[in-house]
Sequence to fold (311 residues):
Amino acid sequence: MECIAIRKGKGGKKKHREGKSKGKKQNKNNNNRKKAQKHDNSNQHAAESNTQAKGKKRKRGQGSSLTKLQEKFRQKLEGSQFRWLNEELYTKTSEEAYRMIQDNTALFNVYHNGFESQVSKWPENPVDTIIDFLRTLPSSRCIGDFGCGDARIARTLADHMNLIHSFDLAKANKHVTVCNIKHVPLKNETLDVAIFCLSLMGIDFADFIKEANRVLKVGGTLIIAEVKSRFTQQNIDGKVAKGDHDSMLNGIESFVQLLSELGFENVSTDIENQMFVLFHFEKRESFSKKKRKHKLLTTNFVFKSCKYKKR
Fold:
């Protein structure tokens, strides 16, 4: 029995050695296969990376040229839309303009983007001039911004003035109250200052001023900034053509007379800026609702439309 046991033991050791030998060879073969596979994968990955890099370069090149073309087309389209909208807003009533913008609020953004692009080329923005003036007033003053656009006055002076009402045809941000500025949601004689900054658009602009008279306190300030060319016969980018200076002065005089009929006294008229005229008026009298509605104006003043060149 011991011999049998010994043979089994020797046989077991032999088999064990053979198993070890085979295992080592198999592991070695597996390692070789892994190395070869890893090498192949590395080569494949490098090839794919090179292909992708070349593809990206081609795409970048194609995308860049397309983007430039698309950007040029977009600017041309927006410029065309702005000029069309500009003409529409100057030649419609405020009710028609309000309905047009409410039916398609995207037009509001198109117009104001185009408008900001034009004003950015001016030596001075009238909004900045008005903001500087408002900073000199006590914070308790109540302000109304008629045709506010993106409500820059309210946003800039939020920490300085206690209350600024901003009105326009569409809601650019939380500061804006949407309405026709011929009918703003304010009680009679609530404002200390009313502002029309390049916003006396539409054929019924005199009704905007009547509304300002309603909501302003007696002795309150009316600030109006308007493009110089609107007081002349020539209307190119706001500039007054040579020989039209007298025409502009006559237009300004007629405008001041119109405001006098609407209850405002002219405090100052600044024509020094190259692009716009800045008026300060003081409200000297209020009108009853009936008188505002039926008041006949004897001054024959009509704003010219502000036209812009194609870019």
Summary: The longest helix spans residues 2-91. The chain has a mean pLDDT of 81. Strands lie at 142-146, 163-168, 176-178, 191-197, 216-227, 264-270, 276-283.
